[in-house]
Design a protein that fits this description.
The protein is of the alpha/beta class. Helix content is about 30%, strand content about 20%. The chain is built from 12 helices and 16 strands. The strands form 3 sheets. Strands 6-7-8-9-10-11-12-13 form an 8-stranded parallel β-sheet. Strands 3-2-1-4 form a 4-stranded mixed β-sheet, with no helix packed on it. The protein has a 4-stranded antiparallel β-sheet with strand order 5-14-15-16, with no helix packed on it. The relative contact order is 0.19.
Amino acid sequence: MSEASAPPGPTTLLGTAPPAPTALLGATLPDGRTADVRLHGGRVSAVEAHDPARPAVPGALHLGGALLLPALVDGHAHLDKTLLGAPWRPHRTTATLHEQIEAERASRRAEEVPVAERAAALARRMVSLGTGHVRSHVDVDPDTGLDHLHALLGVREAFRDRLGIQLVAFPQSGVVGAPGVADLLDAALADGADLVGGLDPVGFDGDAAGQLDTVFGLAERHGKGIDLHLHDGGETGTAQLRDIAARTAALGLGGRVAVSHAYALGDVGDAELDRTCTALAAAGVAIMTNGPSGPVPPVLRLREHGVRVFAGSDNIRDTWWPYGTADMLERATIIGLRTGLMTDPELSFAASLVTGEAAAELGLTDHGIAPGTRADLVVVAAGSVPEAVAAHPRRLLVLHAGQVVGPFADDAYPALVPPAPASPALAPSVPVPSAGGAA
C-alpha cells in the first residue's frame, strides 16, 4: 500500500502524543479522583494523587481533567458478518429466523468485498472508539466451513498490537439439524477458536439435549469456554437457561459459560425469573445483552441475584440490521435507556457492562487502572463516568499495552479499508498506526 493511500494514523486531541506515553497527568479516574497515572512496559506502574507542582517527566501527557477509563470491551460482535467497508446494502425484512439466515446466505454469496477486509474495517473502527478487546462470534456452517474462522484468525494476528480478539465458533445454521457441523466445530476449536457457541437449541434445532450435549462435550474435550445464542422467549427459554446452568455446574465450568441475548429473562413473571436467576448465579453462567428492541433481560435484577451481566454490540451494519456504530459507550447508553437506568450509580453500572464486567467475562484479569494492570486505556471528553454514558463524548486518546493506537480521523469515503492483500493466504494489509502521522 502506498503511503498516500494508507489510512491516517491516530489523531489525538491532546496535542502531539508520544508513541508510548510515560505518564498521563491530571486524569479524572472513574471514582472521581484526579490522578497522575504512570506507565512503564505496557502497564500501569503507579497511580498517584495529581500534584500540579510536580515536575513533568519526559514523555508525559496532560489530560486536563479528562476522564480516563480502562479500555472498552465488546463482549459480543460478529466481525465476519459486517458490511462495513462495502457499499450500502438496503435491509431486507424477513419474518423468521430461518428466513433471515437464508437471506444472509444469499447476500454472502453475492458479496464482493472479502470477509477479512470488512472485518478489518470494523476492527479499526472499534480501536478508534476505545475498544481494547472484543469477543467475536464467527460463522461455522456447511456453506462457509472454516473459511470465516481462518479469515478472522488472520485479522486477529494483524490487529494483535491494537485489539484483543476472542473468537467463538458459532453454528449459525444449527448443530443437530446441519450435517457435519459438529465436526466443523471440533475442527474450529482445534484451529484456534477460543470458545464454542450454539443457537436456540429448542427454537432452531428442535433438540435441546442433542445440541447441548454436542456443545458441552466439545467444550470439555478442548478445555474451552461456551457462549450460546438464546433468543427463545418465555418459559421455553428459561427452561433452557436452567438446563445450561445445570450442565455448567455438573462439568465445573462456572465462569466459562455465557448466554447471549437470553430474551426470556425479560419475558416471564417474577417467580420464573427469580428461579432462573438463582440457578444462573449458582452455576456461574453470565448473561450478555445488547439492549435489543424486544424483551431485555432486567439487568439490575440479575445483578441483585449475583448473575454477571455484560454487554456487546452484536450485529453492526450487516444483513441482520442496518444499525450499529461499534461505540461501546453508545451501547451502554442504549442499554440504560432500554432498562430505565437514570441515576448516577445506575449510569455507572451501565458503564461497567462495557468495561469491568465484560472484561471479567472475557477472562481479562489485568484490566483496570491500578499498578500492574495492562495499560489498555481510553481518554474520554467527559468529567465523570455517568456523563460518559449519557453524553456521547469524543475519544481523545486510545492506548493498547501502553502504545498510542487511536483515535483516528473519520474514515475517508469510499476508501474505508486498505486494499486486499496480494495473497489470499495473508492477513489483511492493515497498517499499525503510529502517533502523529500516516502509518
